[in-house]
Design brief:
The protein has a three-stranded antiparallel beta sheet with strand order 1-3-2. It folds into two domains: 2-65, Homeodomain-like (Arc Repressor Mutant, subunit A, Orthogonal Bundle), CATH 1.10.10; 75-206. Helices cover 60% and strands 7% of the residues. With 207 residues, the protein is mainly alpha-helical. Residues 45-64 bind DNA. Keywords: DNA-binding. It comes from Planococcus halotolerans. One of its GO terms (molecular function) is DNA binding.
Amino acid sequence: MCRFWRRNRMEMNKEKLSPQALRTKQHFKQAFTELINEKGYSHVSVTDIVQRAAYNRATFYLHFLDKPHITEELKQEMFEQIKRKSMERYTPGKIITTESLDTDSFELVSFIYDNRSFFNLYLMEDTIPGLHQDLPKAIFELLDEQFTLVAKGGHDLNSKKFKLYMAHGTAGLILDWARNGYCESPREITGELINILQTFAVGFRVE
């Protein structure tokens, strides 16, 4: 009961955090991500996180209840960022033709590149529990809730099954990019995604 109360209180106070407190939380998350990359999720302790972030345990417990709590918050933050970054360039209600897309069109790819340390966790066996499903899930939710595709010909591109197929295909291409050490630039990967999209869609509308 005490743990539940503390967690609810933390959630209610989240929006009231000062810029300094937000930076402190990000330092803990960054340290946590680095440690998972180095030694695997199951081998990282709160002590490890505190030492790497160069804070004390009291500061950690001011913001997080325990390792599962920081894990859940990190996962949720990145899940929402994946969805948000995919939407930033588009005006709701406007039809975007695939021919008008260029290599700066997908903010998500640049976001992934800039956060390689986190996305490399998708390649690990001993990683955050459930993480492997998050990338395709976030892309699918985004496509299903926010995007209406305009097909070439009379095909139905807006069924849940097709959007699920698109989500897993996009996630697979991105993870293959990560697996190969991000050798191609974000613009090159974006160009490949655009070329694939142009084979079956003439445009899309953001809801």
